[in-house]
Specification:
Elements: H1 3-19, E1 34-48, E2 52-55, E3 60-64, E4 81-85, E5 90-100, E6 103-112, E7 125-134, E8 138-146, E9 172-182, E10 185-192, H2 208-211, E11 217-225, E12 229-240, E13 256-269, E14 272-282, E15 291-298, E16 305-321, E17 325-339, E18 347-350, E19 354-368, E20 371-387, E21 393-411
Antiparallel strand pairs: 1-4, 1-5, 1-21, 2-3, 5-6, 6-7, 7-8, 8-9, 9-10, 10-11, 11-12, 12-13, 13-14, 14-16, 15-16, 15-18, 16-17, 17-19, 19-20, 20-21
Length: 412
Amino acid sequence: MNNFSKILILFSLGLIAGILPATGQQPTSDPSWGIRFSGFVRSDYWYDSRKIVSIREDIFLLLPSPVLPDQQGNDINANGGFNYSAIFSRLTGTITGPDAFGAKTSGVLDADFSGVSNADINGMRLRHAFGRLRWENTELLFGQFWHPMFVPKVFPNVISLNTGAPFQPFIRSPQIALTRFWGNYNLQLAMISQRDHASDGPLGVRSDYMRNSLVPNIHLQLQFDNQQTIWGLAADFKRLRPRLVTEANIQTAETIDNWSFMAYARHNNGNLTLRGKAIYGQNLFEHMMLGGYAVQSIDPVTRFETYTPTNHLFVWGNLTYGRTVQASLFAGFAQNFGTSHTNTGVFFGRGHNIAYMYRIAPSISFVSNRVQIASELEYTVAAYGQPDNHGIITDSEQVSNLRLKVSLFYNF
């Protein structure tokens, strides 16, 4: 089935849901029940001064590539490039319906055309698919949605598709999340698995490292929200089982535990909005951030392995001013603090050879009704070096990339 057929079927289902009465115990009597489509057509144009580490044909920039010398000592990666793309155009179906179990019900189906890998570009990809039950003081969300560390109310206002990564988490996850509300405060407990965004390990990037551990990713978050000011604190626990069997074909049940802690805030004052976040985390690879883990020890006979996580600090701040003409400035910094224990030099993840990173990204947007034209400069620096047996980088060398980006949106 081609993409056009998928879109046609999706729209047809939406029309049917919006026109025909629902079947079941209670017939639909409210014409607002059904599915309402929205989204945008997005076209991105960009130029990079250097080869980069990225996904989806470079549209999602993470960091500049390290120095790669040829036989004459020339840096092969010191070559730029450009590209155009419309694959992140989006179609969102917002679902409303009758109450259930005494709760207001709603849901979302959300897709774009970026595929699930570079080989699948232009393929339709599921972004969000969740249902929500909301009682007076309690909410239950089930399905695929932003991981709670993304924090939908507090993320950078940037033009780039990376949304601030690798300084800001960028991850959608299957989950079940229960939130309790007390006035301006709420407390969320979420149990999360992995799908499109998965951990790295001995067999590559796979979600079964978590599934085999028998323990879901557990997240607890306290948030204050009075509309003008939002702040929050969170703790996140994740267990992985990298192998079921050693290289000597002996069963192993060795796991690795990873902890992350987060604080964030946002404040609105008229046309001015300030946002910021800090994360001290272990093994945040699946969040499109720096991090992973290393082999701590290897038994020479059985090949049993133990593991130790990498530790990183991530900090970013974002200032936005204006409405129809909107200026924004993003700044992010990441620091590598090495592994929790000594390691053997075998790493899984991203950025184990980067001592620190930073990014500065100013942008400007012009909005007229449903059309937005935006431009952004993204200057990203990564300091590459060799990690020692504690994962600490010494004698690092900075490399940088400057991206000039122009994006056009037509919202519907």
